[in-house]
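User: I'll paste a sequence; please echo it back and then give the predicted structure.

Assistant: Echoing your sequence first, then the prediction.
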Amino acid sequence: MLLMIKSLHGLLQSSSMAVLDDVRTTADRLSFAVPAEHEADYLALLSATDIAAQAVLSQPDYQPLPELSAYPRTDVHRPDPEANRYRAWAWKVSINGKRGGVLDGKTVCLKDTICVADVPQLFGSNAISRGFRPISDATVVTRVLDQGGLIVGKAMCENFSHGPCSHSTPFGPVENPYAAGFSAGGSSSGCGALIGSGEVDMGIGGDQGGSIRIPAAHCGLVGLKPSFGLVPYTGVLSSEPTVDTVGPMARTALDAARLLEAIAGSDGIDDRQLGAPSRSEVMPYAQSVLDSRKVGIQGLRIGVLKEGFASSHLHSGVNQRCRAAIHHLAEMSAIVEDVSVPL
């Protein structure tokens, strides 16, 4: 849109006759004619568009700035190796949220694609200068703090936030907290390791093609890629705007629901959020989880993806554990059915 506005603005810097020639040429290329008596109307329309374009282009870029006095950042540092045993921390920081709220007292880590003002950002790479410090907070950062969360640091992500394993950062592989030397999954690898190890209560990961769900699976967590646009992506480094998503990672479904409730809803900035609910319309996800305990999973329909068990690389122990869990769900009166989604 901005490129189009600039193009129109440049077009109308020339004389009216030159613009009229362009109108005629464009109309001819599109196989329709502009009647001579309507040419003045077209010029008037383009002139009005130019005035609007100049008004837009004269405005400064909108840059949301955080209230650092409300949420000061303290103890910003890159942890020593001894304090970073899984190599899962990118940077440590202490930012205390408000008292009360759905996240009251919960410690939260953030994937290092999420901007936090005055805290350096690595993006899983040494190609980004360690001197890079965002000047804005991502919307989800403000919402975590507004809801009582305690942000304790930035979690390492894979190189430029790409990769399903946890070995691609130049700072060393992120270790699985349950099995040293094994992958924590990616690309939200640091979140997976830190939450899985119990160093933090919950975290916000990013997911374009599995980057929340894969480390959640590797580290025994609940990881949710929300519906596209439900959670604002404002202030998060982008991989692909049509699939960019951030969402909760936690050790329990209840904590994942609490975090989703805290960060969901339109922020009026992110254009990915067409149709998203306002903050006041966000569902009470945490209460929904609590209410579901009363009815259990009786009658819940659960699909088991056939293709997920068809890989020759599937470890027999993983297969057995998954099958045992599926059988247990059926014993608890869930309706379990095989489903197929051929690739």
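The first strand starts at residue 74 and ends at 77. The CA atoms of residues 204 and 248 lie 5 Å apart.
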